[in-house]
Amino acid sequence: MRLFKPPSSAFRAEPVSPARRGFLATACACCAVWALDPSPALAQSPEVLRHIAAAREAAGSDLVSYFGLSQIAVPTPGQRSVSPDQLMRMPTPPPGRAFDNLYFVGNRWVSAWAITTSDGIILIDAMDNDDEAEHIIDAGMRKLGLDPKAIKMVIVTHGHGDHYGGVGYLKRQYNPQIVASTLDWTMMETNLEFDRPDWGRPPQRDVAVDDGAVLRLGDTAIDVLLTPGHTMGTISLLFNAKSGGSTHRVMLWGGTAFNFGRRPDRLTRINAYIDGTERAREIAARQNVEVFISNHNIYDQAVEKLEALGKGGPNPFVLGSATTVRALTVMNECAKATRVVWSS
Known about the structure:
With 344 residues, the protein is of the alpha/beta class. Helices cover 37% and strands 19% of the residues. The chain has a single domain, classed as Metallo-beta-lactamase, Chain A. The longest helix is centred in the last third of the chain and has 23 residues, at 321-343. The termini are far apart. Pfam families: Lactamase_B.
């Protein structure tokens, strides 16, 4: 079911030179910190500590993964986070069904989510490369009883290779529409922020969306929310998940880490992140968003929740809107603390 006419473009996704790829690979696109360490005095300033305290209070004991964002402003001496390469080397977890119409097919590093509709499947993100698209996404869907041939749309949450890298395989095999924000299509075509030798090449421009767009396939509608910062064209998604006779509102956050600390536009981006989390928090409260998921397991712990779901009991993905608001508050307060450090 074709709902968009792909816009024409003079741009093409060209290969990046090995030298530039090596430079871009010095930082992880989605979770490593590429920022200058703050001075101890600045990290202990009253304003920074006020925001960190607010973030810690909002995080409680159940959202500590998001509180890790505080390490930019107030780093713990000697603490080293698990690298993307370490996470990618871990055994691939089994795919799983989070809700009747929402499935996880990813690894411990990066996630892909499949939404089933009455007219095919919407895939959110495509992991790092063709190999993962084939052996994790494609194979995982088949293991869950889903037919990858039914993929009609792939939504790329932002223009980093760990989210678009497997698009090439999916496009060749199943020819879905590829959706990304207008801003990040341009970034992918003209000036990649990050790159790695094991990432696939950026896709060619297809469907471009902006804030407020609604993507529809069959009986399913996905609201697009522009949440800039991680990239300036990062999109987060709102849709309904079904469980038996119940419906739960879901927000999938499109880009979490503050991995732009050495960029000249870092203050513009952290301000955009702050504004975006504040707006999303209002939307989450108004729409009763009970499910808050990510495109990285290190934040939403989807793998662990699927394991718990398999043991019976309440669905651990259903957090309640108050918890969704708290998660966005943690992110917002950590961003405000980071802004103080970066402004000094």
